[in-house]
What we know:
This protein is mainly α and 438 residues long. It has a single domain (29-69, 110-214, 233-417), classed as Orthogonal Bundle (Ammonium transporter fold). The protein contains 15 helices and three strands. It has a three-stranded antiparallel β-sheet. Strand 2 and strand 3 form a beta hairpin. The longest helix is centred in the last third of the chain and has 30 residues, at 373-402. The protein is globular and about 60 Å long.
Amino acid sequence: MNTMTPMIPAAAPVPALSDAVFALALALLLLAPLAIAGVALINAGLGRSRSAAQALLGNLALAAVAVIAFALVGASLAGTLGTADAAIHAAGKSWGVLGLGPFLLHGLASATPQAQLALLFEFIAVAMVAMIPWGSGADRWRLSGGCAAAAVMAGIVFPLAAHWIWGGGFLAQLGANFGLGAGFLDAGGAATVHVLGGLSALALVWIAGPRRGKFPREGLSTAIPGHNAVYVLFGCLLALVGWLAWNAAGAVIWLHAPLAALPGTAINTLLSAAAALVATFSVTRVRFGKPDASLCANGWLAGLVTSTACAAVATPLESIFAGAVAGFFTPLLVELLELAVSVDDPSGAIAVHGASGLWGLLAAGFFAAQAGQLTAQLVGIAALLGLVLPLVYLLFALLNRVVAFRVDPDGERIGLDLHELGGGAYPEFVIHRDESYR
Length: 438
């Protein structure tokens, strides 16, 4: 019989960090937000010019709302500063499901350095989670709806996943309770950040629908290219710096990796991104006769997302393989979602973050040395798809009834810069023309 029991001791204390390791991890985390800046530029560049300012402001606004919601409520549910959690007793085992930490970050000053670093990592992660679906809703998602969704993600959904994986919850306990490797491995946030962000993007586009004119009545897909490839490609370079720091910091905080392992983690991150870009470049050149800049950017980002899961546990050759697989399938999946399923995802977040994150988690199971690790990864993936996706869709569907996600047709026609901000990103250029939507 399953029973819910509060106040079950959380995960065992982790080893104390030396001053040098603490300083290095903190420095890495201070560089990690460059990954957020890169994704923000990519989101803005892949949208239309008449919504560029709204897109970039939205990235800032959603990140701001997310970190505040996480500070007020989410950090408590994640249990990073807590000493107990709510758990279910099943099969003679205790399975943590929800953190019971203090609200409003009470006790932060007295927390261990390890806990403070973990909390900072989660703050950066929750900002990224909020921004990922924003790119998928480009040119049609209201700022108010995006901010409301960010609050829900940061206050409810992300903390649950973070507790299950990083806070000693039931996925982290798979190793201790069932001997499945070291439990579910997610050193850089492939599950808690990227898969969660990709699934929320999928829920969003299901609810909001495609941009007007994207899928005409004839059933074909209309190309709506991003307005600034330079933003997109520079965003990729900026994201690389943040990702190198992010993955190294995650290895220290969540896997307690020694300093000697960090250069290898960074090398694997770069190799995964490079292999993914080469693969996407080759696929698009073969399919279209010339490489596609935006899809190559998606491939590069897919390689980075894949590395988030496995850079700390893979060899360089395995990282090249993992990145190449992600880069090969990303443009094909983007095309499949658009043409076969009529999913309008301007940023490609569903494929880049969602699918590549899942592949990275699976690859980590193949590459990790512990016996049973692949099974633990499969259990975690099943939990993400079977529990998190329905929860996100339900919360977004309810939220959409309170705060409408989509702008009205006239706002979409004139562009979200004028409609929501009263001015365009490029006032010296004519960026609007009348269009008839069928």
